[in-house]
Write a structure and sequence with these properties.
By secondary structure, the chain is of the alpha+beta class. It has one domain: Gcn5-related N-acetyltransferase (GNAT) (Aminopeptidase). It is 27% helix and 28% strand. It is built from four helices and eight strands; from the N terminus they run E-H-H-E-E-E-H-E-H-E-E-E. The strands form two sheets. It has a five-stranded mixed β-sheet, sandwiched between helices. It is globular.
């Protein structure tokens, strides 16, 4: 497990808010068609800013590495009001266990009876990662007679979650604090 911090993107500080928006937009621009389930084409920066300002998720964080020099942002993670988890990691930091650490930390901090993960059916690496964390395949959603997304569910009763003992469970409002 990686040593990480989750930093809320819902900051009231204008400078921090702008920095958060840039990270979120860069992460979105790196997303391939295999990773995306929510949009077919890339929004403009202004459209993205409008979306973020609506605070569409119950919780939304940047993932900061506490192991790398200068403590870089390595990705983002969110939790919806329906306990759906979404995660995006910068390409340069993928497959280094940051996603696993962030998911474990999020679930430690925001206890719920269940969590869901909606995954593009072609995103095999993401499906395998969520399975390793104890998520089980639940169902699919369809669009135009094609599978749009596969839904995986984690329930707190009896399911095992990879320990996040090496991850920082406390949340920060600003990466410089």
């Amino acid at each position: 497990m990686r040593d990480i911090a989750l930093i809320s993107i819902y900051s009231s500080d204008k400078c921090t808010k702008m920095r958060n928006l840039v990270h979120l937009f860069q992460l979105l621009s790196e997303r391939s068609s295999k990773e995306s389930i929510s949009h077919k084409e890339m929004p403009t920066y202004e459209q993205h800013e409008e979306f973020v300002n609506k605070k569409p998720y119950k919780e939304w964080y940047l993932i900061q590495s506490l192991e790398e020099p200068n403590y870089p942002v390595v990705g983002c993670i969110y939790l919806t009001k329906d306990n759906e988890i979404g995660i995006s990691i910068y390409d340069i930091f993928k497959r280094q266990h940051y996603a696993t650490s962030a998911i474990s930390t999020l679930m430690d901090v925001h206890k719920a009876p269940y969590y869901l993960a909606n995954i593009n059916p072609e995103n095999y690496k993401s499906k395998e990662m969520f399975k390793r964390l104890g998520f089980k395949f639940k169902t699919v959603t369809m669009e135009n007679k094609k599978i749009k997304q596969e839904i995986y569910k984690f329930t707190a009763d009896g399911a095992s979650l990879v320990s996040s003992s090496n991850s920082q469970a406390e949340l920060q409002s600003d990466p410089n604090s």
